[in-house]
Design a protein that fits this description.
This protein has a three-stranded antiparallel beta sheet. A hairpin with a 5-residue loop joins strand 1 and strand 2 (about 20-25). The mean pLDDT is about 95. Helices cover about 35% and strands about 15% of the residues. It has a single domain (about 10-60), classed as Factor Xa Inhibitor (Irregular), CATH 4.10.410.60. With about 60 residues, the chain is of the alpha+beta class.
């Protein structure tokens, strides 16, 4: 049987850590940043963990 291909959209948006956590960038940080407060922009910096059923779905897309 041929190898499974990784979902190219998911590959760009998510990553799986060594411990198996699924991480993603937070939303609301791409554009229209001028009117958002500095506090809000700092809070949105970095990545957040996806848990539960969603994490399972993403892992399946990434062949993890």
């Amino acid at each position: 049987m041929p190898k499974q291909k990784t979902h190219s959209g998911a590959k760009k948006r998510f990553r799986v850590t060594r411990n198996g956590k699924v991480m993603m960038r937070q939303k609301n940080r791409a554009h229209l940043l001028e009117h958002k407060s500095a506090r809000r922009k700092r809070r949105l910096a970095g990545e957040t963990e996806i848990t539960g059923r969603e994490a399972k779905r993403v892992k399946r897309l990434l062949n993890e």
